[in-house]
Structure formats: C-alpha cells, structure tokens
Amino acid sequence: MSHEDFPTENPAVVTCGLPYPTGDLHVGHLRTYVNGDAFSRGLRKLGQDTALVSGTDMHGTPIAVQALEEGVSPLELGLERHEQYAETFPDFNIEFDNYGHTDEETNVELTKEFVRAWEENDHVYEKEIQVAYDPDADQWLPDRYVEGTCPYCGEHARGDECDDGCQRHLEPGEIENPTSAITGNDAEYRERAHKFLRLSDFQEYLEGFINRMEGTNNAKNQPREWIEGGLEDFCITRDLDWGIDYPGEGGDDLVLYVWVDAPIEYVASTKQYSERVGTDEFDWAEPWRDGDGEIVHVIGRDIIQHHTVFWPSMLKGAGYNEPRAVCATGFVNLNGKALSTSKNRAIWAREYLDEGFHPDLFRYYIATASGFERDVNFSWERFQETVNSELADVVGNFAYRALLFAERNFDGTPDVALSDDVETEIASAMDDYEDALNDYDLRSAGEVAVGLARYGNEYIQSAEPWKLDDDEAAPVIRDCVQLTKAVAVLLQPFTPEKADDLWSQLGEDGSAADATIADCLQEPPAEFDEPEALFEKIEDERVAELNEKLEASIEEASSDEDESESVDVEDLTEERISFDDFQELDLRVGRIESAEGVEGADKLVKLTVDIGVETRQIVAGLKQLHDTDDLEGQTVVVVANLEQAELFGVESNGMVLAAGEQADLLTTHGDAEPGTKIK
Q: What stretch or stretches form a coiled coil here (predicted)?
C-alpha cells in the first residue's frame, strides 16, 4: 500500500459490505453497492488496475433463526437469497469482478488458515465466559437467539449488537435481562468455554493504523473511542450448528463467529477472481498478502467498528496487508423518515425496476445526492428533480444539441482544431475529477461531469452557431463535440449504460467503460450518425402516481397496527446515531440581527445571525410563517458546521432549527450569549 494518489502501480481491490440473506434488497442497501461500483469504475478511469469484489454473508444466527421459522435449512435459504442478489446487482449495472458467498470452499479454507495463523502467533486463547442458555429448549443462545437490554445505553439489544441504540458490538454474556428468542422465556447465564482473539496484542498497531487509514471521516473518527480507550478481546466462537467449524483444538462443538469468516470473504472472492482470469491478469495475493496493494472497503456506517478494529487486527495477526481506506456511507431515508421494512416504508430494488425506470437514473441520484458519509433522503420528488434538472436538462440537452448540429451540418466532427479555452476547461475538469476520487468524494466527481455539460450548454447558447456560416460555426461545434466526449468519459462510472449510448452516438469504437480519463482530450471520430435523446423527463403526474402507490403499501402494512393515537406526530426514526456522530454537530446560540425576504422565493428569508465568534448569513424557510420584522433580535439555535449551500442564488452558511410545520423557532430558556455551544 502506497498512500500515493491514485492511480498507483499497485493493484487495487474495492470491496462492498456483504449483504445478509434474510430479506429483499431495497434502495437503502443499494447505496453501498452503487457507490462501490462507481468508485471502482472511477479508479479504472484514472488508469488504476482495480478489482471489485463482494459476496453473500451466509452464516450466523439471524439466517439460522429465519430458516427455522420458514422450515428450511440455513444453506437452502442462504443460497436462494444469494442467487437473488447475484441477479439483482447487474440489473443496476453493478458489475462485480467476483461475487461469491461465505459458505464456498475458498472462504472456508481461507478462514481456517487465518485462525491457524492466529494460533501459531499466540493471538488466541480459551476462556470460560457467561453464555445465555434456554433451559426449556435445552439450548445455548448465541447472538440473535438472545435479546435483552444493552449494558451501555439501556436500549433493547439483540445478541451481539445494540442495533436499536448505541450500535456497539456486544460480547457474549454482556446483554442484560436476557430472554430467549426461541421460546420467549427468561434465559439464564451459564459458564461455557470459548475462544478469543487477543485484541490487546494489536492495541499499539491499531493506534497507528487509524491514523494512516484513509476514507470517510466517520470511519476514521468513530473507532478512536474504542481503540484509545483500551480494547476488549474478541470472542471468535459461537454455540451454533450453522457456520464454519473451529479448526483448532478444544473447539470441536463450536463454530466461528460470523464476523470472523464474513470479512475473509473479501480475500476469498478476490482469490476466486484470480483463479478465473489467471494471476497474470490479476494476482489476488499481491494486494492482500505477498505484495503491495490498495484495499478500499465501501460499507454502511453501522459496521465501522468491525472494519476498523476487528478486521485490521485479523489481517495483521495472519500476516496480511491492511486496508488503505474505509468509506462508510450514511443511511438512506424515505420522504424524511427512516426506512422500515416491517411497515413496508421502502422502495424495493425490484419495485424500482418494475416501474420502468432506467437503473442509471437511480445510480446517479444515489451516488451524488449527498456526500459519501451523509444520509440521503430519497423521495420521488427529489429523484424527479435530479433526473430532470441535471441529467435531462443539462447532460442530455447539451449532448443532443451538440451532436445533432454536428451531424446535420458537418456529418460529424468538424475538421478544425480544438480551442485553447475549451481544452483548458476539459483539462481542469479532469484534474478536479482525479482530486475528487482521491478524496473519496463521489458527489464531487459526479458534479464535475455534469458541470462540464453545463459549461457546454452555456458555451453553445452564447456562441449561437445556428446564426453563423459553416466556417464560423465549425470551431464552436468542434469544441462541443469534444466536450460531449469528455462528459461521456467522466459520467460513465455513474451512468455506465447511458454513457455507452453516448459513446456509440459519437461513433467511438469499443465501450465507454474502456476509456480512461486521458480520452477526454483525444480527438473524436470524424463521422457519426444522428443522435437520439439520452434521458426523458419524469412528469409530475408520474410522481403523484408513485407516491400514491407508496402510501398505499405503507397503509396496507400498517393496517393491523394500533392506530388509536389522537395526536398526529411523525414516527420516531428507527435509525440511531452514535454519540460521536452527535458530537460532530456544532450547535450554537445565535441572535438574528436582520431578516429580509429572498427575491423570487415564497418561503425563504435571508437572515444575518450573530453566533458570537462571527456573523453568518443563513437562508431559512420562514417567510410565510413569521413576520420578518419580528425575527430581528430573536435568540435561535444554529447548526454552525452545516455544509454551505446556495438557495435561489443566495449563499446560506448554517441552519436555524425550528419545530413542526409552523416552524416554531428553537430558543433558550435563559439569556445565553450568542456563540454559546449547545451540548
């Protein structure tokens, strides 16, 4: 691993967190896989040798519990879901170089090799621990077979993770007030011998690793509390019939914990890829073990600890290379609320495709709607706005206008030189694109591609080639064809199929997937045919229809629930943030110094707010709910570290907090001074 800017001479492996086969895929799941696929395609654009791998996580208690409920074997259920996922990913143009599963022989054998290496290096020991036991079922209760109270935050927790509360990983015996998920009866703790990976052996190593690791800020910052606070050893075995048998002595009736063999599938999947294409094409051992490589993990933020504490220790203990970067995506909400599969408040992968939308529309939206680690709010209205305003109006409109004029007037690319100004614009976009990918910033990379098309639209509109004779128009159209080619190259990681369509319309050979960033400035073909429109707009009536369907499905799923509450209050979000995430919010007391309406906007008010250390300009949707004169002098609460935005051409640097549809402004009980930090 070099930590040099991409592209490097080392092979890269991009992995996506393994899906767990207990349910269908929805738009929230797909965010990880679209981002991983887009990032790997982006690296290839830079000339980086890259493999994209993943697999289905087949083991563990959740699938064992669900299989028991459905009267099938865990293997049968897992394979059914595995095939479903393997068929769904290509439907969204997610193209893994290898997609395996954790019960395949390659992963089983590699996992056992890892464990044997830990034992040989004296990183494993046996200890008697308290394990939940159901005396009525005469059965040990590992992980999701036991429920209770989290000892850290007091929320309801299941087995090995407090997924309703603080998101902490829980070791066997930690959960309080245990009950059996099998019978619903109280469980009891009994002594049981289990195997542990001695994480304390890696304390100093992890302190250095977390400082070297690249990726998203949440992945780099969240684990510091666990690492710097002293590591608890990692129980790597479970009392379960379903899983990989413990390969060492004293573990005859134990299987390995699912979080042992699951990440090793990253290595196994890469190895399977090498076995298929040959090590001359891609040698799995070079990035993972024998050489240098660039390993990048793309995951959901709920499994950061596993990939930044457990996994690097596992790799180090077995003599494997460490990851270069961990990129943790935020959650996907639906219409401002958390996704809820139980209430059918979700847009399922198959449902999206059945509505007839092109997969590239979703890919672009989900990869660029927010920064990598920020939550994305999916709504059909936002989806429509992005497709119409960015893909149809900007990219599609420019490409069609440019190529149509070129074909009708010059049969293709005019035989003149590219202008210096446009060459400089494209070269600058290429630099920005490369910088964005090296910052693990897909949103900015996507904006570079669309920004170049926006520049092209403005250029062709101002030059008005339709008013010029052929000699005068030729340089303009030559520039626009080159801009179109550059857009096709840069947009390909986000909209691979649509970029290929544009590539073909340009008369280029091969596929846009094979083009590198250098091709942005390579001369386009001399001749090409009349183009076709790339994107169609989504009409308001279609959005209304989709929202009606969504509400109907939510209502149907909720029909059996108690709807007797008289107060119409929004549901609490089902996703929790960690205390570390909350601490990242910089909430300050502010005082509104002035307020005036924003021209052309019905609801927006431009505020000048004193936050103690400085005065900020903030745009807020308060005009129809508050008299602007009354706002002056009011004490408010401000999110001071929100990303800057531009609304109706006015810069907004922060957010004023308010409650409910009437925008009840949050304030303080006493006379706190502007700039006082809210904790």
A: none
Residue 428 is predicted with a pLDDT of 98
Contacts 24+ apart (CB under 8 A), 497-502: 497/93, 497/358, 497/359, 497/360, 498/358, 498/360, 498/534, 498/535, 501/532, 501/534, 502/399, 502/534
How far is the C-alpha of 508 from the C-alpha of 499, rounded, in Å? 12
Looking at residue 181, its pLDDT comes to 80
Helix (H), strand (E) counts: the chain: 22, 27
Report residue 573 as tokens: 């979000």
Q: Is 166 annotated as a binding residue?
A: yes
Check whether 573 is labelled as a binding-site residue. Answer: no
Express each pLDDT in 365-374 by its tens digit: 999 998 888 8
**pTM beyond 0.90, yes or no:** no
Helix, strand or coil, per DSSP, at residue 201? helix
User: What is the residue-averaged pLDDT of the chain?
Assistant: 90
Q: Is 484 annotated as a binding residue?
A: no
* Number of residues assigned to the chain: 679
Q: Specify the amino acid at residue 91.
A: D
Separation CA 326–CA 305 (nearest Å):
11
* DSSP letter (8 states) at residue 25: -
Cα(491)–Cα(161) distance, integer angstroms: 39
- H-type alpha helices, 222-330: 224-228, 258-277, 285, 304-305, 311-317
Q: How far apart are CA 77 and CA 152, in angstroms?
A: 34
Measure the CA angle with vertex 282, ends 35 and 91; round to 5°.
35
Q: What is the mean pLDDT of residues 336-344?
A: 77
Token digits of residue 571: 């549901």
Task: Identify whether the C-beta of residue 217 lies closer than 8 Å to the C-beta of residue 583.
Answer: no
Which pair of structure tokens corresponds to residue 160?
């090995």
- Are 145 and 65 contacting, i.e. CB atoms less than 8 angstroms apart? yes
Cβ 397 vs Cβ 482: under 8 Å: no
Given a cut of 90, is residue 570 above it in pLDDT? no
**At a CB cut-off of 8 Å and minimum separation 6, what does 576 contact?**
155, 164, 165, 166, 167
Question: Within a 13 Å sphere around the CA of 328, how many CA atoms are in the beta-carbon half?
Answer: 19
**Residues of the chain by 3-state class (helix, strand, coil), percent to 5:** 45, 20, 40
* 520 labeled part of a ligand binding site: no
Q: How far apart are alpha carbons 115 and 90 in whole angstroms?
A: 34
Give the CB-side neighbour count of residue 216, counting CA atoms within 13 A: 24
Q: Domains of the chain (ranges plus CATH)? A: 116-256 (2.170.220.10), 379-521 (1.10.730.10), 584-665 (2.40.50.140)
- The three-state secondary structure class of 12 is strand
Angle ∠(127,132,136) on CA atoms, nearest 5: 135
- pLDDT above 70: percentage of residues in the chain: 94
User: DSSP state, 530?
Assistant: P
Where is 397: in which H helix or E strand?
Answer: helix 397-410
Tell me what pLDDT residue 565 has.
36
Judge whether 162 is annotated as a binding position.
yes
- Decide if pLDDT at 630 tops 80: no
Average pLDDT over every residue of 548-561:
75
pLDDT digits (tens, 9 = 90+) for 282-323: 999 999 999 888 999 999 999 999 999 999 999 999 999 999
Give dist(CA 34, CA 496) in Å, integer: 11
